[in-house]
């Protein structure tokens, strides 16, 4: 039913879903299937924003909610244009909103129970409490008479107290690209983009304590050392009056790390509280799409719903979000950014140092991004206030309820580690997931060229000669040398596989035998891995000196890839070794930059051919990568317009999908006509075989067909050609005969460029979008045509 705000509210499995429109039956059925195991107390609501066309089969929203509530994975097929993305957003966010309401109710109940317990304790122990006039409990100090309303004192009358420094525990850094220590002072707009790097704050170890007459207890939300005081409240001082009988309980509780004095429950009760706390944890929603452009479209859809104020973030690469005036224009943004953050060259990034100004949801809303936003909005804001959008988006993930990103960020474990993405017990939605198999196989594959291996070997050799962690770099030096030796020894055994390409391929246990020949076995592999982990922990250690030489980020990435793929092949008694192929390839590439002796370059030398060799590990089974994802997430929702046949598709992914749905299209069969043309308007046969395609008769006849379609169809026409050669050939013929100008009179012609340059393609797409906007504007000002339609012509 429609409410006062114009939203349509549907109750699905007890969850009220607000939709910005009257939902298609397809959308309702889909949302019913995606049901996320509810923590079972009340009911959510979905609201839709506008009025879709009704269709026969109810298929979409209920499926989504069903899968989430049952901790079950969902495979949902619904044709393009049937409102999948909007149904996914509304159903997932409706369920999450309902869970927050349940959490609030449970917390109120828990507070009431704790209040009752405290009243009981006070009644039972009143006679044991010391009188406030007891000299042993009178505190005589001017300090406690100051106006410190936020300080709470905790003191024992019989045991001396000590002050412990609020030291951050020193732990081995993880293999993730987390935020290094930064100077986040406010700076004037006239500051330089490159600044002198500051010395890093050295955090004292856990065993460094200072004796005093008071004990400082740092609460869990206390500010870590080295961060801005403006973003954190000062640590809380607590003092408590205790008796002899209570002191033993307090001591044992402290040893067991009992949180604080608020928890007065017995051990049995605390176990129940822990269980409730786990249930109160609300999962985040990770919403993955194929491209950043699709994320922009989903953001626009979200803005139309009542969930537009949800806490959100969008993860992207530096390619899309770097605003540094120099780094953003460079070819290697990742390398240049990391150099500035490391401070190894004596400069720092001012944009990174001000990331704290937009790293929280509150600060983001303060700057105007209070409703659903796109990555371009964050980049614009970052440019205005000179703060880094890339790292701000990652920081926002901590508080966000829904995180948007390309779905390779969720599938590829390497990217997950770099972006600090933890999918444990979270909801994962992959929209337009028909390419998820290729993405998974790609994430489980690796290519090592001889150039890359040699560069890494040279770096390791220098570090060994400089005696930098020699006992750890030397084993990796041996491992990289083994891979190079493998390539060189196999060069004589390569067989021709195609034009200017030769290879030798190993499969299954043949890979194991070939690796054992190079002294790379499961045993030695994990020894190498331990050395690699120690090196990476040292590199990530915030107390490390900037003067210490380290591996380049490219070599670090290469080693990370080797150990990731090796882990897939070696773990669980080589469970997936049969799903891999290993190949040494020799191929030719064209090189344009010819460097002459002395560093001179030829200005008109042209391109020259070079042979490259590489060692490749090809993953043939998407389940190798996706099975890990399936074991971590609370539930996975895959949707697309083309997932059939679902049985084979789900079996290849290595994940069980108990909930499956194939929805009909919202467009009725009577609205679509599909047919073939064997001859044109002149009666000549249309045969696109190689011989016929070269004739002017065929080319002219196809042109006449296209012109007739453009004259008949009131709106867009999309024409596909089998190749760029055919497109170029027909375009030139039509331009010479005058047919091209007749087409221009009827439609705005946009032709895909043959070059693979992204900027050329983007320019063409901008022309297309502009033509669509102009057409919509003209039509809105004029009277709507009685008949409407579009056409697709496939040659």
Describe this structure in words.
The chain is α/β, with parallel strands linked by helices and 795 residues long. Among the domains are: 318-400, no CATH class; 444-540 and 552-592 and 607-622; 690-794, no CATH class. Helices cover 41% and strands 12% of the residues. The protein contains 27 helices and 19 strands. A seven-stranded parallel β-sheet has the order 7-9-6-10-16-4-17. Strand 1 (8-12) and strand 2 form a beta hairpin. Helix 1 runs parallel beside helix 2. It is globular, with a radius of gyration of 32 Å. The two termini are 47 Å apart. It comes from Stylophora pistillata (Smooth cauliflower coral). GO terms for molecular function: ATP binding; DNA binding; DNA helicase activity; hydrolase activity, acting on acid anhydrides, in phosphorus-containing anhydrides; iron-sulfur cluster binding; metal ion binding. Residues 13-480 form the Helicase ATP-binding domain.
Principal-axes shape call: globular
DSSP summary: helix tally:
27
Low-confidence stretches: 35-45, 50-60, 127-191, 199-273, 781-787
Mean pLDDT: 76
Main beta sheet? 7 strands, parallel
As a percent range, the share of helical residues equals 40-55%
Query: What is the distance, rounded to the nearest whole angstrom, between the alpha carbons of the first and last residues?
Result: 47 Å
- Sheet with most strands: strand arrangement: 7-9-6-10-16-4-17
The Rg value, from CA coordinates, equals 32 Å
Number of strands: 19
In terms of DSSP E residues, the strand content is: 5-15%
Query: How does the helix and strand content classify structurally?
Result: alpha/beta
| Quaternary structure state of the chains depicted | single chain
């Amino acid at each position: 039913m429609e409410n006062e705000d114009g939203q349509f509210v549907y109750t699905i499995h007890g969850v009220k879903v607000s939709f910005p429109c009257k939902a298609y039956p397809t959308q309702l059925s889909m949302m019913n299937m995606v049901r996320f195991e509810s923590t079972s107390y009340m009911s959510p609501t979905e609201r839709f924003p506008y009025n879709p066309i009704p269709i026969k089969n109810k298929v979409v929203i209920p499926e989504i909610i069903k899968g989430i509530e049952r901790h079950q994975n969902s495979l949902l097929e619904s044709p393009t244009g049937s409102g999948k993305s909007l149904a996914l957003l509304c159903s997932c966010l409706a369920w999450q909103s309902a869970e927050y309401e349940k959490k609030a109710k449970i917390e109120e109940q828990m507070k009431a129970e704790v209040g009752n317990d405290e009243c009981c304790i006070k009644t039972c122990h009143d006679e044991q409490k010391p009188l406030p006039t007891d000299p042993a409990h009178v505190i005589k100090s001017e300090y406690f008479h100051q106006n410190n309303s936020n300080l709470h004192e905790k003191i024992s009358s019989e045991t001396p107290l000590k002050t412990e420094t609020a030291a951050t525990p020193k732990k081995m850094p993880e293999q993730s690209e987390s935020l290094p220590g930064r100077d986040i002072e406010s700076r004037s707009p006239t500051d330089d983009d490159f600044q002198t790097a500051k010395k890093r704050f050295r955090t004292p170890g856990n065993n460094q304590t200072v004796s005093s007459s008071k004990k400082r207890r740092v609460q869990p939300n206390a500010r870590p050392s080295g961060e801005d005081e403006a973003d954190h409240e000062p640590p809380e001082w607590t003092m408590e009056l205790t008796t002899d009988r209570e002191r033993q309980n307090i001591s044992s509780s402290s040893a067991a790390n009992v949180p604080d004095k608020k928890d007065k429950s017995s051990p049995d009760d605390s176990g129940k509280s822990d269980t409730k706390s786990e249930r109160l944890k609300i999962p985040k929603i990770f919403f993955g799409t194929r491209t950043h452009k699709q994320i922009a479209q989903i953001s626009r859809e979200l803005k139309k719903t009542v969930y537009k104020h949800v806490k959100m973030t969008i993860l992207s690469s530096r390619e899309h979000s770097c605003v540094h005036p120099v780094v953003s224009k460079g070819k290697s943004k990742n390398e240049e950014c990391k150099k500035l953050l490391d401070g190894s060259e004596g400069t720092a990034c001012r944009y990174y140092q001000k990331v704290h100004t937009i790293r929280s949801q509150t600060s983001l809303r303060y700057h105007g991004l209070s409703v659903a936003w796109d990555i371009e909005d964050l980049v614009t804001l970052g440019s205005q206030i000179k703060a880094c959008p890339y790292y701000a988006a990652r920081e926002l993930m901590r508080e966000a309820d829904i995180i948007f990103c390309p779905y390779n960020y969720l599938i590829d474990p390497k990217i997950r580690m770099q972006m600090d993405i933890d999918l444990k017990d979270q909801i994962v939605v992959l929209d337009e997931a028909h390419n998820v198999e290729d993405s998974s196989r790609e994430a489980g594959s690796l290519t090592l060229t001889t150039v890359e291996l040699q560069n890494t070997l040279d770096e390791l050799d220098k570090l060994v000669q400089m005696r930098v962690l020699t006992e750890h770099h030397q084993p990796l030096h041996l491992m990289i040398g083994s891979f190079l030796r493998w390539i060189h020894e196999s060069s004589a055994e390569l067989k021709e596989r195609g034009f200017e390409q030769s290879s030798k391929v190993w499969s299954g246990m043949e890979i194991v035998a070939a690796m054992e020949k190079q002294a790379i076995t499961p045993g030695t592999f994990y020894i190498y891995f331990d050395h690699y982990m120690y090196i990476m922990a040292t590199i990530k250690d915030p107390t490390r000196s900037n003067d210490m030489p380290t591996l380049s980020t490219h070599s670090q990435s290469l080693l990370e890839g080797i150990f990731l793929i090796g882990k897939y092949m070696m773990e669980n008694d080589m469970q997936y070794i049969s799903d891999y192929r290993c190949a040494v390839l020799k191929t030719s590439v064209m090189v344009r930059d010819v460097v002459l002796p002395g560093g001179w370059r030829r200005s008109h030398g042209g391109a020259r051919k070079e042979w490259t060799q590489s060692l490749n590990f090809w993953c043939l089974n998407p389940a190798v990568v996706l099975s890990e994802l399936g074991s971590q997430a609370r539930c996975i929702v895959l949707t697309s317009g083309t997932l059939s046949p679902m049985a084979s598709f789900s079996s290849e992914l290595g994940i069980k999908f108990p909930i499956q749905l194939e929805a009909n299209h919202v467009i009725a069969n009577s609205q679509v006509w599909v047919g073939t043309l064997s001859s044109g308007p002149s009666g000549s046969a249309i045969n696109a075989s190689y011989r016929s395609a070269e004739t002017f008769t065929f080319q002219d006849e196809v042109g006449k067909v296209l012109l007739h379609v453009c004259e008949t169809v009131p709106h867009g026409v999309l024409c596909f050609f089998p190749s760029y050669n055919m497109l170029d050939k027909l375009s030139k013929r039509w331009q010479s005969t005058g047919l091209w100008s007749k087409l221009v009179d009827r439609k705005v012609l946009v032709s895909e460029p043959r070059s693979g340059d992204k900027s050329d393609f983007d320019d063409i797409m901008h022309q297309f979008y502009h033509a669509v906007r102009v057409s919509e504007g003209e039509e809105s000002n004029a009277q709507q045509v009685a008949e409407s339609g579009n056409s697709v012509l496939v040659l």
